[in-house]
Structure formats: structure tokens, C-alpha cells
Design a protein that fits this description.
The chain has 420 residues and is an alpha/beta fold. It is built from 18 helices and 14 strands. The protein has two domains: 180 residues, Periplasmic binding protein-like II (D-Maltodextrin-Binding Protein, domain 2), CATH 3.40.190; 192 residues, D-Maltodextrin-Binding Protein, domain 2. Bound molecules: beta-D-galactopyranose. Beta-D-galactopyranose binds next to loops.
Length: 420
Amino acid sequence: MKKTIFTVFLTLAAAMLLITPHTTCAKDLSGQLEIFSWWAGDEGPALQALVDLYTKKNSGVEVINATVSGGSGVNAKAVLKTRMLGGEPPDSFQVHAGQELIGTWVRADRMEDLTPLFKEQGFMNAFPEGLIKNIGTDKGIWSVPVTIHRSNVLWFVPANLKKWGVKAPNSWDDFLTIAPKLKEKGIVPLALAQNWTVNHLWESVALASLGADNWDALWAGKLAFDSPEGVKAWELFGKIIEFTNQDASSLSWQQATDMVVDGRAAFNIMGDWAAGYMSTTKKMVPGSGFGWAASPGTAGQFLFLADSFGLPKGATNRDNALAWLAVLGSREGSDAFNPLKGSISPRTDSDLSKYNDYAKSASADFSKDRIVGSLAHGVSANEGFMNDFAAVMEMFLKSRNAAITAKAAQQTAVKNGIGK
Ligand code: GAL
């Protein structure tokens, strides 16, 4: 009898081992792993560090690092869509935490619930609760975060500002006072690049104009885009883009950063992947080589976004992908990736001694600032809104009519279910 119970117990234990879905470290993995992102070229070194770490831990797996270049995923997202809808998902792909993930792939029921992985890897307590809300629904947790980036940052070269006799502006009024003086000297006051970077600039300007409460109210559907406050944000934006470069639409975000680095432009507003570019690629020293401040009028506010990777349903190499997600979310993985990327780790136990002075200051701000979600990088609005917003922006750039544009933005919000 005893023997029978013991045998039943052993059989059950063996069966449990077999059906446990997330055995990521115990097995010797083999075959391939295809990861998909837009971190190519200058954006590649941080990802490579993570791939190297994965390969060290899983030497039997060949990593296929599929990238589609183009800042903010403008090209990659289109390719991903074709692959997902065509039933050929990569094993794991980059996606922004927030509406870009939840309002798109989760809503379409294309992602696997990663709650078991989170429990197995101790991720439940490793990431801030607020962030887990951005990657989760009442039905599950849908991706593993790898970065916390800040969108509202003003970049400059301190030695250049000194030479030109200007200071980093605290407000847009300050900027509009010094911009004509810079222009007279032949310096572009604010470097801008291709289309998505215009949306990126807009969100910093709108946040400054609206304030954090109204910014949140917009996305909750509690403040209309064509309210007087909404119109005012477009008016301010119109004044600011007068001081940007004419060739913006033909430049990558790195080329706009280069304008600041080379002294052709005074300022640029970009996410802190620009810090990664300047320190990792350009070998500039944060503080002395390049300087930063919260974008004008947004001190004390942290416009955040988070890159994450998920596991699509039907991934060919599911076990290898789970092991990838385990490395990506680990302290070791996060602290190998983020110091090169310009971002801070989403983990609460990150080792700050591995980070440079810019990241240290971002980390301090993240712990005390008011956190608000980025529009341009997937947190606040779904892809439907983002696609339509591109046309709204186009309309503004052509017409420069704040009231009409604000009305179009409101129609776009209603169409895409904002606040519902
Ligand atoms: C953002 C992304 C960043 C960085 C940037 C520029 O959307 O979250 O990690 O890659 O685009 O491409």
C-alpha cells in the first residue's frame, strides 16, 4: 500500500514537472530564438549586451537578432503587424508598455499570459506596482519590461551655451526669448528630425502647457482636446516649431542630436536614448560633454515610457523565448542593458553604481517626480489614435491653425475610444 502511494506521488511529481510551463533555467535549451526590435545600428549595443548574456547562459541556442531600423519603431511596427497577422510571429518582440501593448496585441488575444513566469522569476516584487499595471490586465501580465525611458528631456552642450552666452531655458517663455538671438547668430535654436520626433516634441510642449493633471485628464477622456486648454497647447507648439530646422523631415533622431553635438543647434528635445547615443556611441561625458534638463516647463514631471518584450501566441521557439524573457527581466540582464541604452532599470533593486551621472539623475527624478505617460511611445494611447494623430499633426504643420487642429484631435480621440 505504502509503495503504491509512493509510486502515485512520484508519478504525480514527474507529471507536474512535465506540465510546468516555465522551466526556463533547468533545461539545456537548443535550436533558435528570434527576437524582433528596432534597436539597430547606433541603438544596437545595449541589445547586443543582453544577447551576449543570454548566449552565455544558453550556449545551445542560436539567437537571430531581427531588427528593422527606424526610431520609435516606425518601420518595425508595420513589419511586426504583417508577421503577426500572417501567423509568423517572432519568438519575442519589443513593444511599449501601456496602450501599445494592451490596446493592440493583448486586445487581439495574440499574447501569452506571463504571470507564471513573473511568479517563477520573482518579477512580481521586482518591478514597481504602477509599471505592472501598464503591462497587465485583469486577465494576465503580458510583457517583461526592460527599460524606463524619460521622454521630456532637453539636451545641450554646456560649452556651446557658454560660448553663445545663453542658459538652458526653464520655461518656453525663456526659450522664446533666447531663440531669436540664437537664430541671429546662425544657430538653430531647436533641432528636430523626422515625423515621429515632431510628436515627441509635441508631448513635451503639451505637458508644459497643460500641466500633469490635465495631461492625464486628456487620456482619461475627462478633458477635451478642443477645450481652451487643448487649443492653447497647439498655439504654443506653433510658436516653438518656428525655431526648428527646415530639413527636419529628412533627419533621423541621431542626426538631430548630432546638430547639437556639432554646435549647429543649441537644443534638442528627445528621450534619454539620446544620452545612450552620446555616451555609448559618441563617448561624450555626461555633465561636461553633454548637459540636460527637464524640457521647459516640465520640471518635477517625468514623462515616462517603458520598452518591454512579450511572448506572442504561436511562437516557434517558446521555451527559448521564455528563457530570453527571464534574462531580460533579471537584475543582471537589466543592469547590462540599461547603462548602455541611456535608460534606467525598471527593477527596484538595480545596481546604480553601474550607471553614469545622467542615469543616476534620471533615477533620482523617477523616484520623486510626478509620473505621466508618453503619447509618442505607446503609454497613453493605442495605435489607432497614434496613426490618426499623424494626420492631425500633418494638418497642423500645413495649416498652423490651432483651433481646427484641436478639433480634429478630439474627433480622433472619440473615434479611438479615448476615455471609454
Ligand atoms: C522609443 C524606444 C526607445 C528608443 C527610441 C528611439 O520608442 O522606446 O527605446 O529606441 O524609440 O528609437
